[in-house]
Amino acid sequence: MKMVAPWTRFYSNSCCLCCHVCTGTILLGVWYLIINAVVLLLLLSALADPDHFSHHFSSFELGGDFEFMDDASMCIAIAISLLMILICAVATYGAYKQHAAWIIPFFCYQIFDFALNSLVAVTVLVYPDSIQEYIRQLPPDFPYKDDIMSVNPTCLVFIIILFISIIFTFKGYLISCVWNCYRFISGRNSSDVLASVTSNDTTVLAPPYDDATVNGAAKEPPPPYVSAEAWK
Predict the structure, then answer these.
(1) Among 14, 179, 174, 186, which Cα is nearest to 99's?
(2) pLDDT tens figures, 63-72
(3) SS3 of 165, please?
(4) Which of 49, 105, 129, 132 has the fewest CB atoms within 10 Å of its CB?
(5) In angstroms, rounded to a whole number, what is the distance separating the alpha carbons of residues 170 and 4?
(6) CB crowding 68-107: b at 16 or more within 10 Å, else e
(7) Beta bridge partner(s), residue 135
(8) CB atoms < 10 A from the CB of 176, how many?
(9) Which residues contact 146 (CB under 8 A, 6 or more apart)?
(10) DSSP 3-state assignment of 14?
């Protein structure tokens, strides 16, 4: 009986909307590119003109977050955004040009992001009171803050855990999509290399028909048959 690895059961060449895993990886890479490009533009705007940026985003919590960031933190955030743009661009190009190794950095980023979210989920499970404390620290004009505070803490924890579970399921599906794309490209490249090697070996081992015919004709014919009565 042939043993099959457990993770091979989830291997598929198609993903959401019945598109190919390479197409799904390209769309995912483009989506991450757009998000990180928007974040980079916001960071550059906040670094170039903090007063103008805070004036336009004063009604959002985002503006307050940028106010408390110094130049060093802003530069680190910009560097991270540039790195993310590079990783997403490389993964998108690798999925388009069928280069499996170029997808690995983006896959590692997905695993790292999933691990960070797992730590958040563990924190919620171990310290459920931290949710109430975080809600109290929100700005007074935060939408539905009073309604959220009035919810039963147990129900609130259950809703948040359910929401985190949905996010984990979605992130896990995206990770499997990128991994299946990597496996598909790697298997296709391995098949092409094997076919090339096989064809080259066949060419070397099997000479052309004309050469074989000429070599066979050039051999000396066998000696003539002599009957046994001639030796008597």
Answers:
(1) 186
(2) 455 555 667 7
(3) helix
(4) 129
(5) 26
(6) ebeeeebeebbeebeebbebbbbbbebbeeeebebbebbb
(7) none
(8) 17
(9) none
(10) strand
* Contact (Cβ atoms closer than 8 angstroms) between residue 47 and residue 78: yes
DSSP letter assigned to residue 143? T
Q: Closest Cα partner for 81 from 109, 116, 117, 115?
A: 109
DSSP H helical ranges for 2-142:
21-48, 50-56, 61-67, 71-97, 104-126, 129-136
Cα gap 168→175, rounded to integer Å: 10
Q: Please state whether the predicted TM-score (pTM) of the whole model is above 0.90.
A: no
**What are 15-51's pLDDT values in tens digits?**
666 778 888 899 999 999 999 999 898 888 877 776 6
Taking the C-alpha atoms of residue 223 and residue 226, their distance in angstroms, rounded to an integer, is 9
Question: DSSP 3-state assignment of 180?
Answer: helix
CB-neighbour burial class of residue 116 (10 A; exposed 0-12, middle 13-18, buried 19+): exposed
Residues in the chain: 232
User: Which SS3 state, helix, strand or coil, does residue 20 take?
Assistant: strand
Which residues are 130's β-sheet partners? Answer: none
82: nearest Cα among 26, 34, 37 = 37
